[in-house]
Amino acid sequence: MKLKSNMLRRAIRFALASAATTSLLTTTVMAEEANQTKAKADEKVEKIAVVGSRAAPRSVGESPVPIDIIGAEDMSKAAGSDMLELLKGSVPSLNVHANPISDAATLVRPANLRGLPADSTLILLNGKRRHRSSVIAFLGGGINDGAQGPDISVIPSIALKQVEVLRDGAAAQYGSDAIAGVMNFVLKDASEGGSFSIRQGEYYEGDGDTTVIEGNVGLPFTDDGFANLSFQYKEADATSRSVQRPDAAAYIGAGVEGVGDPAQIWGAPEIKDDISIFGNVGVDVTDNARFYMFGNYSERDVKGGFYYRNPQTRPGVYSNDGGETLLVGDLDGVGVGIECPVVNLTDKNVANIPAYQLIAADTELGRNCFAFNEILPGGFTPNFGGNITDTSLTIGVEGEFKDGFLEGGFWDLSGSVGRNESRYFITNTVNASLGADTPMDFSPGKYIQLEKNFNFDVSKGYDFDLAYDVNVAAGLEWHEETFEVLSGDEASFIAGPLTEQGFGIGSNGFPGFKPSAAGEYTRRNYAAYVDIETPFTEDFMMGWALRYEDYDSFGSTTNFKITGQYHVTEDFSVRGSISTGFRAPTVGQANVSNVQTNLSSGVLVDSALLPPTNPVSEQLGGTELTPEESESYTLGAVYRSGDLFITLDYYNIEVTDRLSQSEKIVLSDADKAALKAAGVPNVDNLAQVSFFTNDFDTTTQGIDLVGNYSMDMLGGYATFSAAYNWNETEVDRFSAITGDFKVSRLENDLPKHRGTLTWAQQWDNFSGFVRMNYFGEYQGVHVDYDATAKTADATITFDAELTYFATDSISLSVGANNIFDQDAEELDFFDATGIPNNNWGGKYYETSPYGINGGFYYVKATYTF
Asked: How many helices, marked H, and strands, marked E, lie in the chain?
């Protein structure tokens, strides 16, 4: 029978109380009962999702699209200190790579949902769009090259009530970026109680020592509201999964001083002073309206490694002819005064070469001639890092219309602002053009991402003589996105007196941003949508969504989505969706320029990333960026019988005009001349250029299988959970500036099969879980070099945790991830004696889906009040 008006009002009040800070457009509450653990006193509560529908919060079984709900307890059952690590154990279609020696991608790690890049998943916080990070993953491991997604790692698990993962395209509902799906992070809203915990752990290798201190407290905010506050502080030492490079070992053997062992580090970065503070406030301001506010302040320092600079071959510093002769600076000028000798590099130790001894001597000639071996005889390895600051604030009011033609409907008005700043630093390096006067530490500049949103949403149920009221929702959105580049300190970009003699300009490895490259770039867009849900019968429901967006840069786009669910029996239903979507190029992707050091075919070179509309980019095939467009459909089934719950969903996502970095194009002399004319620094030392481009189409398809079963067992209560994902991407179209190897990385780097099987057990005084993680075959790649690629073996890892409830308030836990210390796939570039002959110092393939660091164990103490 239909819901009457008094029932509707009670449903709205329930939605306001349970999710006060979300943009729910609620007409009814659809809740079912399910068993929880004994720790919850056998309460009957269904998992309710607010994402994916503009109507009621609904159970995951009643959703026409697949949704995962990861509760606060589930997120606490993992050793990782990063939200991405916590989620990938629960969502098999989510992949996260470690990114050692990957420029800014080391600072903010991108994640992949359903095989698509990080910025193809929309991130929401309490139902509101989350701003993206200022970090662009210039070296994103193939699939994420050039991605600019939000920084999920700043969100502490202790602040969350649950995470909702909508595994379906939703651009017609939420706008740009929702091609792969949506993640909604729901903050806790309790007005009392809380918890504090401390966790300490390290890897089995004895490094990566990690400390996490976190707390949450709920407070009353007047008699009709709450203020829920959370914090997290963490620090993590760096790890090293490296072997000595053969060239560095040869220099040590020759007696060269100052060569590190290992000279180059592959591992997790060092994280210091990582603090996140989140607040969530809600209060009734009238009988039918509620004020809400939430936001965060987060900051951390991250430092990682770079490639080793060989003291006889590094261009622009030690040699410009591949190690034939030493690069020597004539301080009084070439052809003026004292002439510097040519130093032929005939010995691994330049100190043994007579011509170099003349340069190094305290004589008139020696004081006039300079080589970097005099101050850095063993070469050097830069340390790259950054200070990441993330802030946001959302304020809004929501409530019920009391009169007029929308009487009984629901409204929500909100505004939000988010800002992410990445200030880069690079140490233990040189601006070679300054010679011996170079500093060793530099601040190359900053990127700042600033976003503002205003939303107004309305919803009302209408009686069309169907099974229930038809929910009609509509809304408006205004969005402004600004990307700002701030120049670095002068020493990081200045062309010093030795420039004309072939010495490199700017801080080696990451040159600073020149004032001419600094600037502020802004784009605005507005959107309007309508979303209708029609319950034709009690067993058959369909949803319809249409969204129009207009951008002041590239124009407008219109997208739709149709969903449906039919209950074949009381226990079994089928569901599906069809939709179109889009992802607008970010302002940063359209305007950023950058110089980076990378390995190309095994050789260390400098590469410039230029805006696609730069004349040099256009000369090489670049054009103005346009939105990616997608067409997707899903078809699935839901089965529920007692304590058994199973969902099976097939998905197919076609994306055209995908955005990514082009292949790095080798520069000709004519290209270099054009670069110089455009004001690009250090052109003579640049080997390659890349730019963002809409240059390929893909089809991604897969299957998600999720099952849960609960039962009394072993004198306690047991829950068994299984999840499996098959995901396959095929590149349908690409051009030469994408490249065959890029295609291979897109299609093969991620495992096509992922699965988890978890047994969680609850007793009166103990609880615990064991999780098996399956990772199928994947393409092992190192240093983005096609010659390293191989098919790596499928692997199984195990996680486990045991918790003892010492009192009603105190619990003690011990656990481990990768408990049997399963190593990643080892590089094949080793000779018979076990010495690597790849010259890059790595031990494992960096594309390992379970990381390269091995087993991690931890202990944790929690106080709950």
From this structure: 11, 38
- Is-cis flag, bond preceding 92, omega within 30? no
User: Does residue 687 contact residue 668 with C-beta atoms inside 8 Å?
Assistant: no
CA 693 – CA 695 distance, rounded (Å)? 5
The pairing of strands 470-487 and 519-535 is antiparallel
Q: CA-CA distance, 771 to 802, in Å (whole number)?
A: 12
Sign of CA dihedral 553, 630, 660, 106: positive
Q: State both tokens at 179.
A: 């091609």
- The 3-state DSSP class for residue 793 equals coil
Q: How far is CA 150 from the centre of its chain?
A: 7
- 213 — phi, psi (to 5°)? -120, 125
Contact in structure between 303 and 383 (CB atoms under 8 Å): yes
The alpha carbon of 23 is separated from its chain's Cα centroid by a whole number of angstroms, namely: 25
- Pairing mode, if any, of strands 686-713 and 716-733? antiparallel
Q: How many CB atoms lie within 10 A of CB 107?
A: 28
Query: 147-178 b/e with 16+ CB inside 10 Å = b?
Result: bbbbbbbbbbbbbbbbbbbbbbbbbbbbbbbb
* Closest alpha carbon to 449 in 284, 570, 586: 586
HSE (side-chain half, CA atoms, 13 Å) at 749: 30
Task: Give the angle subtended at the CA of 499 by the CAs of 497 and 505, to the nearest 5°.
Answer: 110
* Residue 34, CB-side half-sphere exposure with 13 Å CA sphere: 18
Structure tokens at 105: 């991608």
Query: How many other β-carbons are positioned within 10 Å of the β-carbon of residue 843?
Result: 19
Angstrom distance (rounded) from CA 265 to CA 258: 16
What digits encode the pLDDT tens for the residues 557-607?
999 999 999 999 999 999 999 999 999 999 999 998 877 666 565 566 677
To the nearest 5 percent, what fractions of the chain are helix, strand and coil?
15, 45, 40
Would you tell me how many other CB atoms lie within 10 Å of the CB of residue 479?
Answer: 21
Place of tokens 């504090």: 196
- The contacts of residue 206 (CB under 8 Å, 6+ apart) are none
Task: Specify the pTM.
Answer: 0.89
Contacts of residue 88, defined as CB under 8 A and 6 or more positions apart, other chains included, come to 94, 95, 96, 111
Q: Give the pLDDT confidence of 638-648 residue by residue, as tens digits.
A: 999 999 999 99
d(CA 260, CA 262) in angstroms, rounded, equals 5
Which helix or strand (DSSP H or E) is residue 137 part of? Answer: none
Q: Answer whether 643's CB lies under 8 Å from 35's CB.
A: yes
705: its two tokens? 């299988």
Instruction: State the Cα–Cα distance between residues 321 and 315, nearest whole angstrom.
Output: 8
List, for residues 38-48, the tens digit of each pLDDT value.
Answer: 333 333 345 67
CA angle 762-767-773, nearest 5°?
100
Tell me the backbone φ, ψ of residue 328, rounded to 5 degrees: -120, 130
